[in-house]
Design goal:
Elements (H helix, E strand, L loop, with lengths): L6 E5 L4 H12 L3 E6 L2 H8 L6 E5 L5 H15 L4 E4 L15 H29 L2 E6 L12 H21 L4 E8 L8 H4 L2 H10 L8 H12 L10 E4 L9
Helix pairs in contact: 1-8, 3-4, 4-5
Length: 249
């Protein structure tokens, strides 16, 4: 119960990595606020997680929704100690010359600006109390360009730099900020890559850990970073990819 007494917000928690992180946090004793776009989906997830779980519908691309999320969380639990920026989209899986400005703006709004808005909202309270942990879910695509995925790579690369900048300034105030960079994990967001058996088999042949990543394998790392067990870790972009990036060497 290493998160006993802490309150966490996990965005994009109705499925995939976000849901796995919410479950892991609740298991470790945290109060967990889960958010996603559909209340009924969140309610169904919350009903299967033992502990204090508060489902709040929130479109992270909308500033008003984020403000309501923060207000609801603090009204219920008093403060926010842990923030996991997991919500993301990838609507431009296409060549760079086919991308239009509308998709550019949408990807920045959801993948990057939402994290900025949430960190701006919760970090001041963390600094005042002298303790807080922020975990941003980036990607190895933020470290190497994703073919036909420029906007996803761009937003995740920017999220890593935001992570490092916040860590640099907030560390002296007791707030740690880290990023997790998953490789291929079996989620709805990445199904373009793993549903194709030939693509998946090709990747597994060059990946040292030869299985498709699972959300729980990312959740365990999030627990470490959120808790005092990760007290000497900040400003890091920690890769969890089964060794996939080694294949480029």
């Amino acid at each position: 119960m290493i998160l006993q007494g802490k309150t966490a917000i996990v965005t994009g928690a109705s499925r995939g990595i976000g849901e796995a992180i919410a479950r892991a946090f609740a298991k470790e004793g945290a109060n967990v606020v889960i958010c996603g776009r559909k209340q009924e989906t969140l309610d169904a997830v919350a009903a299967t997680i033992p502990g204090a779980v508060l489902p709040v519908a929130c479109h992270v691309g909308r500033a008003a929704d984020i403000q309501r999320l923060i207000e609801t969380a603090t009204a219920k639990f008093g403060q926010v100690d842990i923030l996991v920026n997991n919500a993301a989209t990838n609507i431009a899986q296409e060549p760079v010359l086919q991308i239009d400005e509308a998709k550019f703006d949408k990807m920045v709004e959801v993948n990057l600006k939402s994290a900025f808005r949430l960190m701006q909202a919760v970090a001041p309270g963390m600094c005042e109390r002298g303790w807080g942990s922020i975990v941003n879910i980036a990607s190895i695509s933020g470290l190497r360009p994703q073919n036909y995925g420029m906007l996803y790579s761009m937003t995740k690369a920017a999220l890593i730099m935001m992570t490092q900048s916040y860590a640099l300034e907030l560390g002296p105030k007791g707030v740690r900020v880290n990023a997790i960079c998953p490789g291929l994990v079996q989620t709805a967001l990445s199904e373009y890559y793993w549903k194709d058996e030939d693509k998946l088999a090709k990747q597994m042949r060059t990946q040292p850990v030869q299985h498709l990543g699972q959300p729980d394998e990312i959740a365990g790392l999030a627990v470490l970073l959120a808790s005092d067990r990760g007290s000497y870790i900040t400003g890091q972009a920690i890769v969890a990819d089964g060794g996939r990036m080694l294949a480029s060497l």
